[in-house]
Design goal:
Chain lengths: ~130, ~675
């Protein structure tokens, strides 16, 4: 369990996962249910347990349509879609490893590529 | 200067763990007038009380301060102890250093400091205490029961059994309440009407019981033992004393398109109606919203066919006034409205029904004569989905925060009855938790699963979609097999949350009783006084106090009756001597106090005064009836000239306390 990651997801989603009473209405209402490996109620429960890395590796985070049906219908006001969104953000932000190194740049250059894009890519992903 | 004794209680560790009691006793011992200050482990124990009694005699005390728990717990204990030692009980003051100090603080230094300050305030007050004497006030030996459901009926029967007169006020044309609408009862599956109607008849035939049906409580004045209540007897346009309940008018009435509330609007009734066959009193009522004679003066059929001449189109509401010694509230519950739960399509699809509607659909006196048919096309349903916890256990913005308690059991009952009567019907129950505490309750639920093969699925229905072929699409989650289910159902039954009746809130204001945020009446103590309200003489019966099934309601109804009987048995009760009184020389006759008094204890009189120049003048001044005053103090706050004062809590005493705290 990664405590920092759990903190980050809870903070950025603004969701109190402890309000969940495990009724499963979120998963009962979800239109993307069959596309997802982990379902809305599992997101809430796994974030509560701190098992966030598993969710980050799953394609389920990109299957959520953010339609907010679960948020609208949750009897306890838990907002599962916001939890999915927060895990997705955590996955996108955690890309320290794949920044561009200056050596890689020459081969990527072509006439159409704006110079600004290369500088941004370096700054964004450099350690 | 009074001779004052201070007694600081440890309350085991309840106080002593957070407050340095020895330091408190030491510090308060130096206060002016204090001649003895000591601490003890349990001041409320017999030896603790003896400590107080002995000190009163030995030190000739003129005032006692007990630093202990809330005065609601032990004020009476110490007042009695003081009285037995020869000290007027109203010379005892309690400083609450438990609920208002030790229990809410963690830091010993600050809690101790606060306890000392609270003690000082009580000492400052007790210096100004004067001996007070209680008066006696007579008890009217008659009870009022508000609500004629099973709770009210049970309470009334029990009070009548003890030989006291009881009036039932019921707003509907008949008593019986929700139980009359129910088909069968869990866990025995006996027919609700078969066990309820004998009780209704018993109530109507009992010489001690008067039923005011189609009536509402309009106004309540007075206090324990002596309430004056105005009851509005609504015009039913039928003379109750003449009507024989033959029902001919209801047959002949040409206006037959009125939604029948007894059958939850699933069929129609006539404009003149008797709610159901076993109604008590069995008297017709004309619905003025639909009667063509009352609306535009054309028709009059009922009047022509009535052989006893009971129809009276000119009848008006009547207000009667009665005196009561005790009042029992039994206003009951209603299922919540389901308009805002769009996902269940309740408002769009007639085949999505509430559980109470299903009771009527299955009842022999219901719209289909007891055959379960879909309301839309009157066909037999083959797949029925039950949804639990609709509007219960919700976030405040989504519904009721509490568990409605009865739904798990009645859903199991419905599922079982349907499988018993129609074995070709598949029944699914979507549950979050199945809650079945109660005698033979879990066995009942297990029977639904094991014997009747009802499909219990852990999960919730997320979406209900009416389809063009008449089926109802149900999309739900099955949490245990971790899959989403799609069921084509013929009927969907929603276990709607229950809420207190809407009339309860204004009634609580009239009775000056307390309610919680959900509009359930608050009991005087959640564990030890569950059927009394915090207002003396007002008792609680049934679901008005919280969700309850029938056995619990009956038990509470009888308990409330026992409490009411205990009060009615007394010839007189001791009044609180802490009542208001007005200083006539300061009173300017403004009527502010009269307006705020919730008990109607203040009247204005014209009184002759001698003026400084030896003339006389007649002035209008406030006069308090001490037998009616409950000592709430509203008038002392409202009085602009400071003429109104409260014995035991005088303005000077309160100011002395404030000064002591601020010093």
């Amino acid at each position: 369990m990664n405590k920092n990651l759990k903190e980050q997801v809870l903070r950025s989603s603004g969701v109190n996962v402890l309000k969940c009473m495990r009724c499963g209405k979120c998963s009962g209402t979800c239109p993307s249910y069959d596309e997802m490996e982990y379902h809305p109620h599992q997101f809430v429960y796994m974030v509560e347990k701190g098992d966030i890395e598993t969710l980050m590796k799953s394609e389920s985070i990109y299957k959520c349509l953010t339609c907010f049906a679960c948020v609208d219908r949750c009897p306890r006001g838990v907002q599962p879609a916001k939890v999915v969104e927060a895990v997705r953000l955590a996955a996108i932000r955690q890309q320290d490893g794949n920044h561009l190194s200056p050596d890689q740049i020459p081969s990527l250059l072509d006439e159409d590529l704006p110079q600004q894009a290369i500088v941004t890519a370096m700054r964004k992903y450099a350690k | 200067m009074q001779r004052i004794g201070v007694f600081v209680c440890h309350c085991g560790t309840n106080i002593a763990a957070t407050v340095d009691v020895k330091a408190v006793a030491e510090a308060l011992g130096h206060e002016p007038g204090v001649v003895i200050s000591q601490d003890y482990q349990y001041m409320c124990s017999e030896s603790g009380q003896n400590l107080v009694k002995d000190a009163i005699k030995e030190h000739d005390l003129g005032g006692v301060v007990i630093c202990s728990c809330s005065p609601r717990m032990h004020e009476n204990t110490f007042r009695k102890a003081a009285a037995s030692a020869g000290l007027n009980p109203y010379l005892v003051e309690i400083a609450n250093i438990r609920e208002q100090c030790s229990w809410i603080h963690k830091d010993i230094a600050t809690a101790t400091e606060k306890a000392i300050i609270l003690g000082k305030a009580a000492i400052a007050k007790v210096h100004l205490n004067t001996p007070l004497t209680s008066m006696e006030s007579p008890v009217v030996k008659r009870a009022l029961v508000i609500g004629g459901g099973i709770a009210g009926i049970q309470t009334s029967l029990d009070i009548a059994e003890a030989g006291f007169d009881v009036d039932i006020v019921e707003k509907q044309p008949t008593i019986g309440g929700k139980m009359a609408q129910i088909d069968k009862t869990f866990p025995t599956l006996d027919c609700a009407a078969c066990i309820l109607t004998p009780k209704m008849v018993e109530a109507s035939q009992n010489e001690h019981i008067t039923i005011h049906s189609f009536s509402e409580v309009e106004d309540v004045k007075g206090f324990v033992g002596n309430f004056t209540v105005k009851i509005r007897k609504k015009a039913r346009y039928v003379d109750e004393t003449k009507c024989t309940g033959c029902g001919l008018c209801t047959e002949k009435c040409p206006m037959k398109k009125v939604p029948n509330e007894f059958n939850m609007g699933l069929d129609n009734r006539s404009a003149v109606y008797i709610p159901f066959a076993q109604a008590v009193p069995k008297v017709a009522t004309i619905d003025p919203n639909y009667c063509m004679m009352l609306k535009n003066g054309k028709c009059g059929v009922c009047s022509k066919v009535c052989s006893v001449g009971a129809i009276d189109y000119k009848q008006q509401d009547r207000i009667i006034e009665e005196k009561y010694g005790a009042i029992v509230v039994a206003t009951g519950f209603n299922p919540i409205k389901l308009d805002k739960y769009d996902e269940f399509a309740y408002s769009q699809c007639p085949d999505v029904v509430t559980s109470l509607e299903l009771e009527r659909l299955m009842n022999a006196a219901g719209p289909n004569g007891g055959t379960l048919l879909r309301p839309s096309d009157k066909t037999h349903p083959h797949t029925i989905v039950f949804v639990q916890c609709v509007g219960s256990r919700c976030d405040d913005s989504k519904g009721k925060p509490y568990c409605s308690k009865i739904c798990c059991m009645y859903t199991a009952k419905h599922a079982m009855l349907i499988r018993e009567k129609y074995p070709d019907t598949e029944v699914y129950v979507f549950y979050i938790d199945v809650r079945t505490p109660g005698k033979n309750f879990d066995e009942f639920y297990r029977r639904a699963v094991e014997q009747y093969n009802v499909h219990y699925i852990k999960g919730m229905v997320g979406k209900v979609t009416p389809k063009s072929d008449g089926k109802i699409g149900v999309q739900a989650s099955d949490l245990l097999s971790n899959e989403q289910l799609h069921i084509d159902a013929d009927m969907v039954v929603l276990a709607a949350a229950i809420e207190p009746d809407k009339t309860a809130r204004p009634l609580a204001t009239m009775l000056t009783t307390q309610m919680d945020t959900n509009d359930f009446f608050t009991e005087a103590h959640p564990k030890l006084r569950p059927v009394e309200s915090a207002t003396a003489g007002i008792f609680l019966s049934g679901a008005c106090q919280g969700p309850k099934d029938i056995p619990e309601t009956v038990a509470q109804g009888s308990a409330a009756a026992a409490k009411a009987i205990g009060l009615l048995c007394k010839n007189s009760i001791t009044c609180n001597p802490c009542t208001a009184h007005s200083n006539e020389l300061m009173c300017n006759g403004c009527s502010s106090c009269e307006k705020v008094c919730p008990y109607g204890a203040i009247t204005y009189i014209d009184k002759e005064f001698r003026m400084p120049d030896r003339t006389t003048a007649i002035r209008r001044v406030a006069s308090v009836n001490p037998a009616v005053c409950q000592g709430c103090g509203a008038c002392t706050v409202a009085c602009p000239s400071g003429a109104m004062d409260l014995s035991g809590f005088s303005n000077s005493q309160i100011m002395a306390e404030v000064d002591a705290i601020c010093k």
